[in-house]
Design goal:
Helix content is 70%, strand content 9%. It is α/β, with parallel strands linked by helices and 1185 residues long. The protein has a domain of 161 residues: Alpha-Beta Plaits (2-Layer Sandwich). It has a 6-stranded antiparallel beta sheet with strand order 2-1-4-5-6-7. The chain has a 6-stranded mixed beta sheet with strand order 8-19-20-3-21-22, sandwiched between helices. A hairpin with a 2-residue loop joins strand 21 and strand 22. It is flat. The two termini are 35 Å apart. It is found in: Cytoplasm. Keywords: ATP-binding, Coiled coil, Cytoplasm, DNA-binding, Nucleotide-binding.
């Protein structure tokens, strides 16, 4: 068996389909760094089931799919197919060739194929067990694997030795057996729960069955005696009814006579009452009339009081009007005085205005004359200025010529100066450019340093990504634990739901009624509709007892229908609780609040729908829950044993003083079952939330990893940018050197130009001297004219000053005139205002005088009205005296009629008393009849309820020869009562439960036997593993000692089992002592020594158990040439049994190869595999080295 072919398509750097054919022997795969040769070993590991993308040098599954380049688009999927030659049938499949294929999509999906048929990874692992082939085996060894073998992590090292020692398949089977054992135990646990539940039902049912049989025997005997007793009692009651009916008839006749006498007296009393009502009506009318008169008189008194008040108000108004008239006359007088004063002021101001107007006109004439003289002087000044302008033009022409020559001189001097400055600037530029070159050299060094820092950051980010991925893996483990818990909770929840669904714990009759959905008005068993906190469950179960089995119905009709159904199908007996009949029967909390140590009334500790409240309070409303027995006894004493008391452990103190206690057998967990379902549902919700939280954390970590990857991309981008920047700096330095050369050429040109400018300067200086003398003569003439202009300007200034003084005086007069004019206008307005006020006051005075006259007339009218009202009041008072006399006479008549009526009422009272006495006697007789009939009906009801017999059926059963012995009856009843609650359905229920008990006993036994078998299988597997491991490990250890000495050229190597008592899980210690050195800790070995030690272990394993093929990925890279030679020689020896594919760049390895493949990257990011001849391989080797 060997690796025949490897096909890659879209995997990493192999976008196009690539076939690599392998032969037996040694095949070397060579190529430059980064060409993608290690992607071949990655492909083999990946197709064999490697799940860690990190170990394949990626971050996520899509990283193994070709990502695309600038010229080639990305692939959507990748696939790798590995074909194994199975001619020797080492693999347990009837094929000479076996192809394992794996395909992955960019979306994250992955699938496996075996000979092009879809399969599971598990199938591939099982196929390759104990062949050494696989991701955890020793068929693929890279530098990381070397580190794992020599690392302090015992798990990774152990996997390699397990595969080499042929115990991987045993360990796999053991793990499978342990998983089966776990599942079987879980199934057993569920079966045991049901088994215990059924067992708990069966034991009490067995006792109930025996009790029920005895009960039926006693019941039949009692029926015969009791039915005959009831018939005798009914006959006696019939006789009593006949006697009572005769007495009832006699009393009824007496009652009728008294009734007639009463009717006669009642007619007489009615006539007397009519007379009394007539007199009473007249009295009421008289009283009503007198009250009306009194009301009118009182009204007259009120009206007179109002009129007198009006007289007072009228006098007050007249007085006020007189005062207002006096005040208004005073105001008119004051206004007249003020008006006279304002008229005088008006005349004075008007005279001042006229005088000032005259002064303003005189000043204006003087100012106009002064302005004429000023204009004449200004004209003389302007003429002199024109002459000066002419002289200035002549001077300007000469100055312009001088300016031209002077400008030339300046230009020559400036150009010379510019040349000097430019020369300086060029020199400075040369110096600056040289400094800039130095600066860029420093920047270049800093840039190189920064690139190194970026590379360090790149490495740190990679470490962060590794750490985050490790955290993500831990969360994955937690997610698996959470999922296991979810499965456990779901399993238990399903068990309790199944028990609830099948009404576990309920009697047969209850179950049948609850199952029959055609019965209407059935709300469920009492135990189904209630729930409670766990701490109260025992107390409530003890309190309720058999009530838990009672069924709640809408009404008695629904209960009756259900009972008929039970009777018809012989399904047993059930107690029903009709909602419309049962009423609340609850203790008043006030009666027990003063007592101590009680927890509460049992009905208050139950959670139940409001519509069932009355039923709960009827059953539990008079039961008190106390913490423990001692406190319960104390409470019962305090309350004189009036109430039923129950403890939290289920002990009961009954009313009257009896106690019930001991062990409680749960009745199918009816009460706690609902709570357990709710608890497990809550646990499911919490665990689902926890799982969701973990998955969110996983998502957050994925996001963090993505962020770190983005940072890595940014650093990569910065590295790229800085590499470009470094290239730019080098280009800039070269450019600056070119600029320095150009600047030096420019400096020489400026020196040559400066020499030519010196010769032109001398001619221009002589011409400028003659022009300066001409300009001097013109300036003297210009100066004389300026003196004359100054003299005229002084005279002009004096005239202007005088003019300004007169002008200011003119302005002041105008301002004063405006002020006086404003005061005059103000006086006119005040005169107008006072005139209007006086006019208004005169109008007001006329109105007040008019109101005064009206007030006097109104007073006279009121005084006349007072006289009229007083006369009417006196007439009404006389009329009131007459009506009071009439009322006294009517009251005397009323008293006479009342005396007559009282006499009749007295006679009626005597008759009523006699009538009541007769009626009471009659009622007693009728009550006796009712009691007798009720007693008879009770006996008939008892016959119906207890024996389901009608009266006629019972009479047919009467035996005249049976002597009723009441003591025997009481003895039978006591014996029946002593049996307590009897479950007649228990006979059939016991048979049904026994059948289920036998079934689950068998199931339980089968599972226990299965567990025993699995334990034995695990034990056998462990024994086989120990035996196989000991044999193989001893052989590998001997091989290691031999190989170590051969590869190292001496020294000692040994493998030791650390914990010999637990060899299957023990760490394996590697002892290495290179030649000429002391024994060393593995961590203290050099890189080459470590590599050679790991290679020695690998070769030792291959000698003990050769794998069909082995891929070596640069594991010999750290070895020196001497060790490479020994490595190559040993590899050649081992290739007789094992096919080797070595990814290498070492000449010594290539030299021992039978076949060589080259991997190149002719196009960026795209690898290509080529077959090489020996000479080409040598040349490629030289290039790599």
């Amino acid at each position: 068996m060997y690796l025949k072919r490897l096909e890659l398509k879209g995997f990493k750097s192999f976008p196009t389909k690539t076939d690599v054919l392998f032969n037996e022997g040694i095949t070397a795969i060579v190529g430059p760094n980064g060409s993608g040769k290690s992607n071949i070993s990655d492909a083999v590991r990946w197709v064999l089931g490697e799940q860690s993308i990190k170990s394949l040098r990626g971050d996520k599954l899509e990283d193994v799919v070709f990502a695309g380049t600038d010229t080639k688009k990305a692939m959507n999927y990748c696939e790798v197919a590995l074909t194994i030659d199975n001619s020797d049938k080492k693999l347990d499949l009837e094929y000479s060739e076996i192809t394992i294929k794996r395909r992955a999509y960019r979306s994250g999906e992955s699938e496996f194929f075996l000979n092009n048929k879809s399969c599971r990874l598990k199938d591939i692992k099982e196929l390759l067990l104990d062949t050494g082939i696989g991701k955890d085996g020793y068929s693929i060894i890279e530098q990381g694997k070397v580190d794992e073998i020599l690392s302090n992590n015992p798990v990774n090292r152990r996997k390699v030795f397990d595969e080499a020692c042929n115990i991987s398949k045993y360990r796999y089977k053991k793990q499978e057996s342990e998983r089966n054992l776990k599942h079987t135990k879980e199934n057993l646990s569920r079966i045991e729960d049901i088994y215990i539940e059924i067992e708990n039902q069966l034991k009490p049912l067995e006792g109930q069955q025996k009790k029920a049989i005895k009960y039926l025997e006693l019941k039949d005997k009692l029926k015969v005696l009791e039915v005959n007793s009831y018939i005798n009692e009914i006959e006696e009651l019939n006789r009593q009814v006949e006697e009572s009916l005769k007495h009832d008839k006699l009393l009824d006749e007496q009652s009728n006579d008294l009734k007639k006498q009463k009717e006669t007296l009642e007619e007489t009393l009615a006539k007397t009452s009519e007379e009394a009502e007539g007199i009473e009506s007249k009295i009421n009318k008289t009283i009503e009339y007198t009250n009306t008169i009194k009301g009118v008189i009182n009204k007259k008194y009120s009206e007179l009081s109002v009129l007198k008040e009006k007289i007072i108000n009228s006098d007050s108004d007249i007085k006020r009007y007189n005062e207002e008239i006096a005040n208004t006359n005073e105001k008119l007088k004051n206004n007249k005085l003020e008006l006279d004063e304002l008229e005088k002021k008006k005349e004075e101001v008007f005279d001042n205005l006229s005088c000032m107007k005259k002064q303003i006109n005189e000043v204006d004439v003087k100012n106009k004359n002064k302005k004429s003289s000023i204009s004449e002087l200004a004209e003389n000044v302007e003429n002199l200025k024109d002459e000066i302008i002419t002289l200035l033009d002549l001077k300007q022409n000469s100055a312009n010529k001088l300016s031209t020559f002077t400008a030339n001189i300046e230009n020559i001097e400036k150009r010379t100066e510019t040349i000097n400055l430019d020369a300086e600037i060029v020199k400075k530029n040369i110096e600056s450019k040289k400094n800039e070159i130095k600066s860029h050299q420093l920047n270049k060094e800093e840039k190189i340093k920064f690139i190194e820092e970026l590379r360090l950051r790149h490495e740190n980010i990679n470490k962060n990504i590794d750490m985050l991925k490790s955290n993500s893996k831990n969360i994955d483990n937690n997610i698996q634990v959470s999922k296991l818990k979810l499965n456990e909770y779901k399993s238990k929840l399903n068990i309790y739901i199944d028990m609830e669904k099948h009404y576990e714990g309920f009697n047969r009759g209850v179950k049948e009624v609850l199952k029959n959905k055609s019965l209407t008005g059935i709300y469920g068993a009492l135990g189904q509709v209630i729930s409670s906190s766990q701490e109260y469950e025992k107390a409530l179960e003890a309190s309720l007892g058999s009530y838990m089995q009672n069924i709640i119905t809408k009404d008695e009709n629904s209960a009756k229908t259900a009972i008929n159904y039970l009777k018809k199908n012989n399904l047993g007996r059930v107690t029903f609780l009709p909602l419309n009949i049962i009423k609340s029967n609850k203790i008043d909390k006030k009666m027990i609040k003063s007592t101590t140590n009680y927890i509460g009334i049992a009905s208050d500790l139950v959670k139940v729908d409001e519509k069932y409240k009355n039923i709960i309070e009827n059953i539990l409303g008079r039961t008190i829950v106390i913490k423990n027995m001692d406190e319960a006894i104390k409470f019962a004493r305090e309350t004189n044993h009036r109430y039923k008391v129950v403890t939290l452990d289920g002990e009961i103190l009954n009313p009257g003083g009896s106690l019930t206690g001991g062990t409680i057998r749960t009745n199918g967990n009816i009460l706690s079952r609902k709570r357990l379902i709710e608890e497990f549902e809550e646990k499911l919700v919490v665990e689902k939330s926890e799982l969701e939280s973990l998955e969110n954390k996983k998502l957050d970590l994925s996001n963090d990893i993505n962020e770190e990857v983005k940072k890595l991309e940014i650093v990569d981008l910065e590295l790229s940018e800085n590499d470009k920047s470094l290239v730019y700096i080098n280009t800039t330095i070269k450019s600056l050197n070119d600029e320095v050369l150009n600047l030096e050429n420019s400096l020489q040109k400026l020196i040559n130009e400066k020499i030519g400018l010196g010769e032109n300067l001398e001619y221009t200086l002589n011409k400028a001297k003659s022009l300066k003398e001409e300009i001097k003569d013109l300036e003297e003439k210009h100066l004389n004219n300026k003196v004359k202009i100054n003299q005229l300007n002084v005279q002009l200034k004096e005239f202007n000053n005088v003019y300004e003084v007169e002008k200011n005086k003119f302005d002041d007069l105008n301002i004063e005139y405006a002020r006086l004019n404003q005061a005059y206008e103000s006086i006119l307005k005040d005169i107008e205002r006072i005139a209007k006020e006086s006019e208004l006051q005169e109008s007001t005075l006329k109105n007040i005088e008019k109101q005064l006259e009206e007030g006097k007339l109104n007073k006279v009218k009121i005084e006349e009205q007072i006289k009229i009202e007083t006369s009417e009041k006196e007439n009404l008072e006389n009329q009131l005296i007459d009506e009071n006399k009439k009322l006294a006479l009517q009251k005397e008549q009323k008293e006479s009629i009342k005396s007559k009526s009282d006499s009749i009422l007295s006679d009626l009272k005597n008759i009523d008393r006699k009538y009541i006495e007769v009626k009471e006697s009659l009622f007693k007789i009728e009550s006796k009849i009712d009691r007798v009939k009720s007693a008879k009906e009770n006996y008939i009801a008892k016959l119906s309820e207890e024996y389901e017999l009608t009266l006629e059926e019972a009479e047919n059963l009467k035996d005249e020869f049976i002597i009723i012995d009441k003591k025997e009856l009481e003895s039978l009843k006591r014996e029946l009562k002593g049996l307590g609650n009897v479950n007649l359905d228990s006979i059939k229920e016991y048979e049904e439960i026994k059948e289920r008990y036998d079934f689950y006993s068998e199931q339980k036994k089968d599972l226990e036997e299965s567990i025993e078998v699995i334990y034995k299988l695990i034990q056998e597997l462990e024994e086989n593993m120990k035996k196989e491991f000991n044999e193989k490990f001893t052989l590998i250890n001997e091989n290691f000692k031999f190989v170590y000495k051969k590869l190292f050229g001496g020294g000692n190597g040994e493998l030791k089992i650390v914990d010999k008592a637990n060899i299957l899980d023990s760490d394996i210690e590697i002892v290495a002592q290179p030649p000429g050195k002391k024994m060393k800790n593995l961590n203290l070995l050099s890189g080459g020594e470590k590599a050679l030690t790991a290679i020695s272990i690998l070769f030792a394993i291959l000698l003990a158990k050769p794998t069909p093929f082995c891929i070596l990925d640069e594991i010999e890279a750290p070895l020196d040439d001497a060790n490479i030679y020994r490595f190559g020689e040993f590899l050649k020896e081992l290739s007789k049994e094992t096919q080797f594919i070595s990814i290498t760049h070492r000449r010594g390895t290539m030299e021992v190869a039978d076949y060589i493949y080259g991997v190149t990257m002719q196009e960026k990011a795209i690898s290509k595999v080529i077959s090489l001849k020996l000479q080409e391989a040598k040349e490629l080797t030289e290039d790599i080295i």
